[in-house]
Amino acid sequence: LLRIFAAQDLRGLKILVTAGPTREAIDPVRYLSNRSSGKMGFALARTAMRRGAAVTLVTGPVALPAPPGVEVIRVQSAHEMAEAVFARAPQSRVLVKAAAVADFTVAAPAEHKIKKSGEELSLPLSATVDILRELGARKEPRQLLVGFAAESQAHYQEGERKLREKNLDLIVVNDVLDGQSGFAVDTNQVTLIGKNGRQEMPLLSKEDTADRIWDAVRALLDAQDA
Ligand code: CTP
Ligand code: CA
């Protein structure tokens, strides 16, 4: 019931959210990907929309329906995600990068299905563009940039490093080894790290985690206007 009467505290804001994994083609029938389900990014899009924002969701391939009222752009590869995001970034006040973007893509995808032969196969990979880092480098004065960090060790140090190196306003750190957080589950236990310190969240549904992230974004927007 509370959700129906959600505060319209993001009204009028253009928000871009990314979600899901990417797929990097190996040949016409195979790809490299990861375990991201898209649930966190979709929860972020849905909750922001409820709170009054105009939301665009750029998502990799996931088995989730489009949240009503959200503009959904479906992409496959890291390169396609980068193009879709860069085209829309200048018009967005807040950008939240929940997608699990491939760090490497197949250097030369095969035009035809690769046949089995021999005992080994090597697949040369090349680095993808770090979308978030690029957005940080191009950030406009009043834009807010929120990143995610999936870590299995040294969580806070890694989160703080990514916050600084990618010029972010906020980073959401989660533990990919903890079975109740991160990939493909409905709950999450995250830590929010900003320039002025960190906030550990309890174990929550992804929907409630999303609302806590928007609370933190709202506070940063208020601080800009103060
Ligand atoms: N990210 C991105 N583009 C990439 C890789 C990552 O935009 N090519 C973004 C993710 O969407 C996420 C953040 O960067 O918001 C952190 O992703 P993560 O994998 O934790 O960090 P990396 O910087 O890729 O470093 P590493 O994988 O080595 O920990
Ligand atoms: Ca990565």
UniProtKB/TrEMBL annotation:
Cite the binding residues for CTP.
D103, K113, F148, K162, K166
One of this protein's GO BP terms? coenzyme A biosynthetic process
Keywords of this entry: Decarboxylase, Flavoprotein, FMN, Ligase, Lyase, Magnesium, Metal-binding, Multifunctional enzyme
Which superkingdom?
Bacteria
Q: Which reaction does it catalyse?
A: N-[(R)-4-phosphopantothenoyl]-L-cysteine + H(+) = (R)-4'-phosphopantetheine + CO2; (R)-4'-phosphopantothenate + L-cysteine + CTP = N-[(R)-4-phosphopantothenoyl]-L-cysteine + CMP + diphosphate + H(+)
Q: Where is the DNA/pantothenate metabolism flavoprotein C-terminal domain?
A: 10-219
Q: In which pathway does it act?
A: Cofactor biosynthesis; coenzyme A biosynthesis; CoA from (R)-pantothenate: step 2/5; Cofactor biosynthesis; coenzyme A biosynthesis; CoA from (R)-pantothenate: step 3/5
State one molecular function term (GO): FMN binding
Is Lyase there in the keyword field?
Answer: yes
Segments of this protein annotated with the region Phosphopantothenate--cysteine ligase? 15-226
What does the Swiss-Prot or TrEMBL cofactor note state?
A: Binds 1 FMN per subunit.
**What does the record give as EC number?**
4.1.1.36, 6.3.2.5
Q: Name one GO cellular component term.
A: phosphopantothenoylcysteine decarboxylase complex
Per its Swiss-Prot or TrEMBL entry, what cofactor is needed?
Mg(2+); FMN
**Free-text function comment from the UniProt entry:** Catalyzes two steps in the biosynthesis of coenzyme A. In the first step cysteine is conjugated to 4'-phosphopantothenate to form 4-phosphopantothenoylcysteine, in the latter compound is decarboxylated to form 4'-phosphopantotheine.
Q: Which family does it belong to?
A: In the C-terminal section; belongs to the PPC synthetase family.
Q: What is this protein called?
A: Coenzyme A biosynthesis bifunctional protein CoaBC
Q: Species name for this entry?
A: Desulfobulbus oralis
Which gene is the coding source of this polypeptide chain?
coaBC
